[in-house]
Amino acid sequence: MISFNKRTSRKMMKEIAYHHKISVAEVRRQMAYAIEIAKNNSAPEKQTEFQRLFGNRIPSPEELFCTISKNLTFK
Known about the structure:
The chain is 69% helix and 0% strand. By secondary structure, the protein is mainly alpha-helical. The radius of gyration is 13 Å and the shape is globular.
């Protein structure tokens, strides 16, 4: 099973930044924007899923990697 912790999440962000030739700060900014959009999604099932994973709070990009990796299932 794949699972990220904060350290591996930070490494992943560095890899993303390197691959896209942007700074880690820019990766974090873009991820924070995407998280905000996901939190405010108007689809009820998407809101329910976000609530199940994170409650009423907005996760950090590192926490997003960790939580999502723990909830992945492969068929």
